[in-house]
Design brief:
Blueprint: H1 3-19, E1 22-25, H2 29-33, E2 41-47, H3 50-63, E3 72-74, E4 77-79, E5 82-86, H4 101-114, E6 121-129, H5 152-162, E7 166-170, E8 174-175, H6 176-182, H7 187-210, H8 217-225, H9 228-241, H10 245-259, H11 265-282, E9 285-289, H12 292-299, E10 303-308, H13 314-325, E11 332-336, H14 344-350, E12 353-356, H15 364-380, E13 384-385, H16 404-415, E14 421-430, H17 436-443, H18 453-461, E15 468-473, E16 477-478, H19 479-486, H20 505-522, E17 525-526, H21 528-538, E18 544-545, H22 546-562, E19 570-571, H23 576-584, E20 589-594, E21 597-602, H24 607-617, H25 622-634, E22 637-638, H26 639-657, H27 663-679, E23 684-686, E24 689-691, H28 700-708, H29 711-727, E25 729-730, H30 732-750, H31 760-772, E26 777-778, E27 784-785, H32 788-798, H33 803-811
């Protein structure tokens, strides 16, 4: 390194250190990027900039990586630790000069020819200041907009104003030995090829972090109002509503203003600082898993559509915040029109939210405008986020998906999106949901309160001690591949016209929606509150000693460590004792002491709240819970009989809980679960028989709790089959209605604290599965009839249900 460079780095070190807060991406550079801290590294940067190099040095120090400032001595030669693709833009000239990078790479490859043992790491690093996406027309803000190679004068203002919004994004390490071995020929030509590849890499990196150029309002209006479908809808609106064409067009313009987002990068930066303070205040931490997936999609030029589960209004903020800090452009967010109130609506709109009504029914003009706006976002390359459930879950379970947005997405593909489109399911979990009390009031019959400024202020005052948050990015779904696999002739539909609905669309959308929900649950996060709730609610008195609770939690964690539900599911770090300790600090549980030790239970009259958190992870314990239910009910049962009954009930569990495994894979998983349950002494095996552990064994309590975790589920099955038995023949709607009434009766009678026990969505899924599995007969009149198959299933289920429930159901003659 030249003395001038060292002088500049030394001179500007402290000014830059005071102004810059470097945020490095990703967090784990070793496992995700294959960077070896112990091997020499040559950092490849886009621009020859002292401030970029200093920001990189700060990030390297945070991550324990070799310095990007000190030279590297290898094979008797001195190599720079940082190399640059281009020089800064001159203040008064248009084109920057070329750097010496070709000479450096040429010399490096030449050294590799002479020294076969030599191997370095080239790590591309993209340093950006702010995340401004750029505008169609220039403005004063362009002075501080981070360009590819800004001049030193522009860089001065960039560092001054955007120093705290500095991002240092590392890319995968590339072995110089591997490059030298693969590439044959003149070293200078190989260096030129490497420079071209690096230029493309940095271009894609910039695009993935900042996104496409912002839409001007006039361009947006012209694109939407000029679309053929909107023109046709305007004409239809004028004709059907007896309006002039100008009045109909003005109505379409009003819809655009109601729907469209107004993204402002400055608000995102301010929001980042505000939210960082809020998260530090209310959360103990935010765990993010599998973010590598979205970075790879963006790097490969995919249009990304995020489809998260919806637990809380906090989801809007948390997921966008996480995406921003993972080095990705923040998405445009589909938000309910109920959130478009002053002042929140305007803030959300400038953060990228676009608003949609709960129902489009009967309004062809609104539908056409919304669809064209969504297609415009896709075609311009904006990432988008929408919630397939259509609203927040009040029970903690996934809600059966609404398919409207997914249908519009597929229809946009048929009209032609140039880039590959990938849907990314996202699981969001919390140890405390701020709206959980209002959810319970709504489930008990209270009306949903309309969102308002006072409601927001009330929520803000209560923001504290929320535990941990979890964001897991699930397995992406590449839409072209999905359609190729399920609708091989889908491309032929492009020839029938963009506004025609192909016959395959509805079943394909339904299958897509189910796949999305399954992949959300596949990426579930097990946290301390959810696991504690599972244990306490399975206890007969909902009270456990601290030792019992820790023992059961430890058993369940070990079970899923050895037999994980999926590779995407995650577990909170720490032992069961540590998890429980962190949950008790949230002060959401009652802790009392007697002469024998510490007792833990829900707060008085708050057990129902814990069902919300248990339901977040119930699908992970559905199969081990069902296995234990069968064994405890029969006391001694053949292993094959257990698997046979699990096989019969699995379609119900799969539909109700969005479990991803096929029936064959689920049974294979159950084989492994049984082996592990026996290994942990939660079950005993003698030859082909399975029995519960003895009541005086240490493992009995954990096994008994697990057997009770699925009790309410099998009780619901018993309820539906009893209603069917009483009626013999009944239409579907009446079967669901009477089943809910009977379930609510049992809930009151036996003190069950689970709102989903009589949830209409759960009973609808159950009846659908009965029909699909041919367990009920359909009459010519469209009603359902009790059959030999449903009678046989009823007999098996009644053996699993608690005797008092079975007896009570048997005594009921009618509702």
């Amino acid at each position: 390194m030249s003395w001038l460079r060292r002088s500049l780095l030394s001179t500007f070190y402290w000014p830059v250190r005071l102004l810059v807060r470097a945020k490095s991406i990703p967090q784990d550079v070793e496992s995700e990027l294959g960077i070896d801290r112990n091997k020499p590294i040559i950092y490849l940067l886009q621009t020859d900039s002292v401030t970029d190099q200093l920001a990189l040095s700060f990030a390297c120090k945070q991550r324990g990586l070799p310095s990007p400032i000190d030279d590297i001595q290898q094979a008797g030669a001195t190599l720079p630790s940082s190399v640059f693709l281009r020089r800064p833009q001159p203040v008064f000239k248009r084109q920057p000069k070329q750097t010496e990078i070709l000479n450096v790479f040429t010399e490096m490859f030449h050294l590799h020819r002479e020294h076969p043992q030599l191997d370095l790491q080239v790590v591309p690093v993209f340093v950006t200041w702010g995340r401004a996406p750029g505008k169609g027309s220039p403005g004063w803000a362009d002075l501080i907009a981070d360009k590819a190679s800004p001049s030193w004068l522009r860089k001065f203002f960039i560092v001054l104003f955007l120093g705290r919004d500095n991002f240092v994004s590392f890319s995968k390490a590339v072995s110089t030995r591997s490059m030298a071995n693969k590439q044959q020929g003149d070293d200078h030509l190989i260096a030129q090829k490497l420079v071209r590849v690096a230029n493309t890499h940095f271009h894609r990196k910039r695009q993935s972090m900042t996104g496409p150029t912002l839409l001007e309002r006039s361009e947006l209006n012209n694109a939407v109002l000029g679309a053929e479908s909107v023109k046709s809808a305007v004409q239809e609106e004028a004709r059907s509503k007896n309006l002039s064409m100008d009045e109909a067009r003005q109505r379409a313009q009003t819809y655009i203003d109601e729907i469209a987002g107004d993204y402002r990068e400055g608000l995102i930066r301010i929001g980042d600082r505000v939210l960082t303070r809020i998260w530090n205040k209310i959360y103990n931490g935010i765990s993010v898993s599998h973010a590598k997936r979205i970075r790879e999609l963006a790097q490969n030029g995919h249009e990304i559509i995020y489809v998260p589960c919806h637990r809380s209004h906090m989801d809007y903020l948390l997921l966008t915040y996480v995406i921003y800090h993972e080095g990705m452009v923040t998405p445009h967010i589909a938000a309910g029109i109920n959130l478009n109130f002053w002042p929140v609506g305007k803030i959300f709109r400038r953060a990228g939210a676009f608003f949609l009504r709960r129902s489009f029914a009967g309004n062809k003009l609104y539908t056409a405008v919304f669809r064209e706006y969504l297609e415009l976002l896709f075609n311009k390359g904006y990432s988008v986020k929408y919630y397939p459930e259509g609203g927040r879950s009040r029970t903690g379970r996934l809600i059966p998906p609404k398919t409207g947005m997914l249908a519009m997405t597929l229809q946009a593909m048929l009209k032609g999106i140039k880039r590959p489109v990938s849907i990314v399911p996202v699981y969001i979990g919390y140890e405390h949901v701020m709206e959980v009390n209002s959810y319970l009031k709504e489930l008990s019959g209270s009306g949903k309160k309309k969102e308002s400024p006072m409601q927001i202020l009330s929520a803000v005052r209560k923001l504290k001690n929320y535990g941990h948050g979890y964001v897991n990015f699930g397995e992406p779904l590449q839409l072209n591949q999905f359609l190729d696999d399920n609708v091989p002739n889908w491309r032929e539909s492009q020839a029938i016209g963009p506004d025609k609905k192909p016959s395959w669309l509805t079943p394909a959308v339904n299958q897509l929606a189910n796949t999305v929900m399954v992949r959300i649950n596949k990426a579930a996060a097990i946290n301390g509150m959810a696991l504690t709730s599972l244990c306490l609610l399975s206890s007969k008195t909902k009270t456990m000693t601290e030792a019992e609770l820790i023992g059961a939690m430890e058993n369940y964690l070990n079970l899923l460590k050895v037999c994980p539900y999926s590779a995407d599911a995650t577990m909170a770090d720490g032992s069961a004792a540590n998890l429980l300790d962190s949950i008790l600090k949230l002060k959401r549980l009652k802790v009392s002491n007697d002469s024998l030790g510490k007792l833990i239970s829900p707060m008085p009259n708050k057990a129902v709240i814990m069902t919300y958190y248990r339901n977040n992870i119930l699908h992970l314990f559905a199969l081990p819970g069902l296995i234990m239910t069968i064994v405890f009910a029969h006391r001694s049962v053949e292993r094959s009989a257990v698997l046979n009954l699990v096989g019969e009930l699995y379609p119900f569990l799969q539909r109700e809980l969005f479990i991803y495994m096929s029936k064959e894979n689920a049974l294979a998983y159950c084989e492994r679960l049984i082996d592990q349950l026996c290994e942990q002494k939660l079950l005993l095996a003698e030859k082909h028989l399975l029995t519960p552990p003895s009541a005086d064994s240490q493992a009995f309590h954990a096994g008994w709790l697990l057997s009770r975790a699925m009790q309410e589920t099998v009780q619901r099955y018993a309820v539906v089959l009893r209603v069917l038995e009483l009626a013999q023949t009944i239409n579907r709607g009446e079967l669901e209605k009477q089943s809910r009434q009977m379930a609510e009766h049992l809930s009151t009678l036996y003190g069950m604290s689970s709102p989903e026990f009589y949830d209409k969505n759960v009973f609808a899924a159950l009846v659908t599965t009965l029909r699909e599995q041919s367990l009920v007969e359909s009459t010519d009149e469209g009603t359902l009839r009790h059959s030999d198959n449903s009678r046989a299933l009823q007999h098996q289920i009644n053996q699993l249900v608690w005797p008092e429930i079975t007896q009570h159901l048997a005594q009921l003659k009618s509702l």
